[in-house]
Design a protein that fits this description.
Elements lengths: L2 E6 L4 H13 L3 E7 L19 E5 L5 H11 L3 E4 L6 H6 L1 H23 L7 E7 L23 H20 L3 E6 L1 E3 L8 H10 L4 E4 L5 E6 H14 L5 E4 L4 E3 H16 L10 E4 L14 H7 L7 H14 L1 H7 L2 H12 L2
Parallel strand pairs: 1-2, 1-4, 2-3, 4-5, 5-6, 6-10, 7-9, 8-12
Antiparallel strand pairs: 9-11
Helix pairs in contact: 1-7, 2-4, 4-5, 6-8, 8-10
The chain binds nicotinamide-adenine-dinucleotide (NAD) and 2'deoxy-thymidine-5'-diphospho-alpha-D-glucose.
Nicotinamide-adenine-dinucleotide binds next to α1, α4, β5 and β7.
Length: 351
């Protein structure tokens, strides 16, 4: 095998798309997917590639030093693409410690393992850390996030991701660890857990349940199709300059309420419902605490230096996403377990 890539969080939403891309595109790489299978991790996401000879799955927690040391020893890991994280802002508001544990302690544990195993010879090694645009804060007065924007995280989730980003850069500066970082905007697409806005709304529209829109629905996000994010990760992994950060975005800003209206239109069409039918489900609910107003990414550096651009328009991406959820209702049923019902009740029924 030409390379052994340890990918963390590969059973999650974005991770599963990255695993699939690399397993298929690089048969000469051994892809080791390490995931603890939290509520968000699902091996069903990888059914189509699980028996490929260049793929291995290891169930482990990134905070567990012994497991990580064993994986490095057993497989001779030379590259890491680190996606494992607690990723949902609302959960970080109700349970911040899990975010510190996985996002900060877990990332540091992986950094330590990389330094211990690779010190003395960093040739051909890379620690690629996947992060978020939320570390830059909220754009209340216009403008865009660039790689030079000062960090200003405002939720326990974004603060824990900011902490992990700082640690990755600190290990580069202090120990010379060859690192790459990317900070991406909101992803959507197949296999996203229905706690995030788009799959939650798809599921509720499908079941004619109310669609909870926080506050007045005025908050703005910059949406990117998940396969475009996976392609950007491929490009940065292979061509990115060590020590550098790349912002990834869709150049595709939507107010939440406008996005939900578009989604309702698409779903009415696909479900053969009268125009305007699903929009009646929109319900404005109590706002998220500390809700960031606007995120918008300037991904000019990635375009200029590595020639990456999104390939899918929002209408195409949303349409593909809805088709996927309609064709994979069994997948939805499997993730909508008793735990999901409990979460949904606590998160929404008291709002
Ligand atoms: P996700 O919640 O769908 O998946 C996270 C995965 O990590 C799951 O498979 C889970 O089982 C695993 N995991 C969690 N804790 C773990 C631990 N302690 N040890 C091992 N595995 C663990 O998340 P996602 O949306 O796919 O996000 C992946 C990464 O991309 C995260 O680092 C997130 O911060 C970042 N990101 C996400 C988005 C987005 O819009 N979803 C945008 C930008 C960046
Ligand atoms: O910007 C990148 C980030 O995008 C990632 O780092 C996070 O992992 C990912 O979860 C996402 O964070 P957001 O908080 O932006 O995504 P979410 O889907 O939770 O919410 C999108 C917007 O919709 C946000 O303004 C809150 C709002 N919202 C969300 C939910 C779940 C609602 O109005 N109603 C809802 O029920």
């Amino acid at each position: 095998m030409k390379r052994t890539v340890l990918i963390t969080g590969g059973a999650g939403f974005i991770g599963s798309h990255v695993v699939r891309l690399f397993v298929k595109k690089y048969p000469e790489y051994r892809m080791v997917n390490l995931d603890k299978l939290s509520y968000a991790g699902n091996l069903e996401n990888l059914k189509d590639i699980e028996s490929q000879p260049n793929y291995r799955f290891i169930r482990a927690d990134i905070t567990d030093k012994v497991s990580i040391r064993n994986v490095f020893r057993e497989f001779g890991v030379d590259s890491i693409i680190h996606l494992a994280a607690e990723s949902h802002v609302d959960r970080s508001i109700s349970s911040p410690m899990e975010f510190i544990q996985t996002n900060v302690i877990g990332t540091t544990n992986l950094l330590n393992a990389a330094v211990e195993n690779w010190t003395g010879d960093f040739t051909g090694k890379v620690f690629y850390h996947i992060s978020t645009d939320e570390v830059y804060g909220s754009l209340e007065d216009g403008g865009y996030f660039t790689e030079k924007t000062a960090y200003d995280p405002r939720s326990p989730y974004s603060a824990s991701k900011a902490g992990s980003d700082h640690l990755v850069r600190a290990y580069h500066n202090t120990y010379g660890l060859p690192v790459l970082l990317s900070n991406c905007s909101n992803n959507y697409g197949p296999n996203q857990f229905p706690e995030k806005l788009i799959p939650l709304a798809i599921n509720n529209i499908l079941n004619e349940k109310s669609i909870p829109v926080y506050g007045k629905g005025e908050n703005i996000r910059d949406w990117l199709f998940v396969e475009d994010h996976a392609n950007a990760i491929d490009v940065i992994f292979h061509k990115g300059k060590k020590g550098e950060t790349y912002n990834i975005g869709g150049n595709n800003e939507w107010k939440n309420i406008d996005l939900i209206r578009l989604l309702c239109r698409i779903m009415d069409e696909k479900l053969g419902r009268p125009p305007g039918d699903s929009e009646k489900l929109v319900t404005f609910v109590k706002d998220r605490a500390g809700h960031d107003l606007r995120y918008a990414i300037d991904s000019g550096k990635l375009k200029k230096e590595l020639n990456w651009e999104p390939s899918v328009t929002f209408e195409q991406g949303l349409s593909k996403t809805v088709d996927w959820y309609l064709a994979n209702q069994e997948w939805l049923q499997h993730v909508l377990t008793g735990d999901y019902e409990k979460y949904y009740e606590t998160q929404y029924l008291s709002r």
